[in-house]
Design goal:
Blueprint (H helix, E strand, L loop, with lengths): L19 E15 L2 E8 L8 E4 L3 E8 L8 E3 L23 E7 L4 E6 L12 E6 L9 E10 L7 H11 L42 E4 L2 E2 L5 E3 L5 E8 L6 E5 L4 E6 L2 E8 L1 E4 L4 E7 L4 E8 L8 E6 L19 E2 L19 E10 L4 E4 L10 E4 L3 E8 L5 E5 L4 E2 L5 E2 L1 E4 L4 E7 L5 E6 L2 H5 L3 E7 L1
The site of copper (II) ion (CU) has 5 residues, from loops.
């Protein structure tokens, strides 16, 4: 990280009539029970996920982070178009929050949607430090009877290792032998090409399946052997807000016996799409409406391409009947699984039509052996920040030059894909390109990075700076 230092952000006073949402989040070590197995981890307010934060669009959030961890930390408000000083990136927007100290995040959340928050330090995201942030649209008619937040995760912390050790080992040994990196960076060792070994049966469309072997996968902090139970009445309409808080795992998601109508992704409305199952990359969010049948049904998030650790599962119960078991296999997962970037935007979600004022290229590069990832020819810290001028429509020609998938995430803005679909995190398949457009309407220094936290930490990040 660049070694810039920062003072406290300017305090914000609520504007007349603006509601203030105040909260303290205490980050500290805890012991978590995962289906009878006790694991040591770090969490917010003793829970995984941490406490759900909810506000209306336009409210002022005043969140105090109390750092009782044995390490520096921060909070990043993933997907929120907030003021730069609250973005939570140490060295870019604030100083790291040291053990025993506090930091107040003050920002207005302008856009409704499903978001989450997590640290922006090291691989802390792969501990229990994450929680949902729901911004309500006060003008939206509630066309559903209830809402369920469904947070997905891949879990390894406290199972004999920690995310820091996992990263150390990846850097020391390289990734799994089958994993293919290519398109190595100029001036860096290319390592082996890795080949297509990881792309065996069932692996399409995302290529290699990630770098870490997780012993379990969670929904709402619970493993499939001791699942979360979501209850409702038959015939009720439920809004699902699905968040992928995993660090290294793409999931396919289905609710056995049901079709889901996807209504939003990353906070923005899509043309409603009826699906049996959908993919969700790390950092992505999908909202879906479902009308529930009568009985007990498996809500399954199946790790893409991973062969151990089972799957994530919750039970949806509206009536009697035996609960599905941990290995439940909804038929929906064998049918078509929708790729989110192929959804169509709702008209209201489109950027106004405009030609780009400026264009930049963004290459996603790296290799598994050695474990090196970067953007535009070098790891973060050594690559040149992208530049934009306030008021511009910027086009970023992003190309994934590797044989792995990468969820590309932008801070402080929501970009448009060529279809007009609005996203802040988009899964890029091996060798895939996207021209993504953004309106430079939020002055500051922002991160663009892969939301595989191990790739990001190994260098797959770049800054986006506003020039004056
Ligand atoms: Cu959720 Cu910079 O990331
Ligand atoms: Cu990546």
């Amino acid at each position: 990280m660049p070694s810039r230092t920062f003072g406290s952000p300017t305090p914000l006073a609520p504007s007349p009539g603006q509601k203030v949402i105040e909260q303290t989040l205490t980050a500290k070590p805890i012991t978590l029970d995962l289906g009878g197995r006790q694991v040591a981890t770090w969490a917010y307010d003793n829970a995984v996920p941490g406490p759900l934060l909810r506000a209306n669009a336009g409210d002022l959030l005043q969140v105090t982070l109390d750092n009782q961890l044995p390490a520096d930390t921060t909070i990043h408000w993933h997907g929120i178009r907030l003021r730069n000083a609250a973005d939570g990136v140490p060295g870019l927007t604030q100083n790291p929050v040291q053990p025993g100290s506090k930091f107040v995040y003050e920002f207005t959340a302008p856009d409704p949607g499903t978001y989450f928050f997590h640290p922006h330090v090291g691989v802390q995201l792969d501990r229990g430090l994450y929680a949902p942030l729901i911004i309500e649209d006060p003008n939206e008619p509630g066309r559903y009877d209830a809402e369920w937040v469904v947070v997905l995760d891949d879990w390894i912390d406290g199972t004999g290792t920690t995310p820091d050790d996992v990263l150390k080992k990846l850097i020391a040994d390289g990734g799994p032998a089958s994993s293919g990196g290519m398109g190595g960076m100029g001036g860096m060792d290319h390592g082996s090409m890795g080949g297509m070994g990881g792309m065996s049966m069932g692996a399409a469309p995302w290529g290699d399946a990630g770098d870490v072997i997780y012993p379990m996968f969670l929904i709402n902090g619970k493993p499939a052997t001791d699942p979360d139970v979501l209850t409702a009445k038959p015939g009720q309409k439920i809004r699902l807000r699905v968040i992928n808080a995993a660090s290294d795992t793409i999931f396919s998601v289905a609710l056995g016996g049901h079709r889901l109508t996807i209504t939003h992704t990353d906070g923005y409305a899509v043309q409603p799409a009826q699906v049996g199952a959908f993919y969700i990359g790390m950092g992505e969010r999908y909202d879906a409406i479902v009308t529930l049948g009568d009985g007990a049904f498996p809500l399954v998030a199946r790790p893409f391409g991973k062969t151990s650790g089972g799957q994530a599962l919750a039970i949806v119960r509206t009536g009697s009947g035996t609960a599905p078991d941990a290995g439940a296999n909804p038929v929906e997962l064998s049918g078509q699984v929708v790729i989110g970037s192929q959804l169509q935007p709702a008209d209201a979600a489109r950027l106004p039509a405009k030609d780009p004022d400026a264009t930049v290229n963004l290459a996603l590069q790296g290799s598994m052996k050695p474990y090196q990832w970067g953007m535009n020819g070098a790891p973060f810290g050594k690559n040149e920040p992208l530049k934009v001028t306030a008021g511009q429509r910027l086009r970023i020609n992003a190309t994934n030059m590797t044989m792995m998938s990468h969820p590309l995430h932008l801070h402080g803005h929501t970009f448009a894909l060529p279809s007009g679909l609005r996203k802040d995190t988009v899964l890029m398949a091996p060798m895939q390109s996207f021209a993504i457009d953004l309106d430079a309407d939020n002055i500051g220094d922002w991160m663009i990075h892969c939301h595989n936290i191990y790739h990001a930490e190994a260098g797959m990040m770049i800054a986006l700076e506003y020039t004056t």
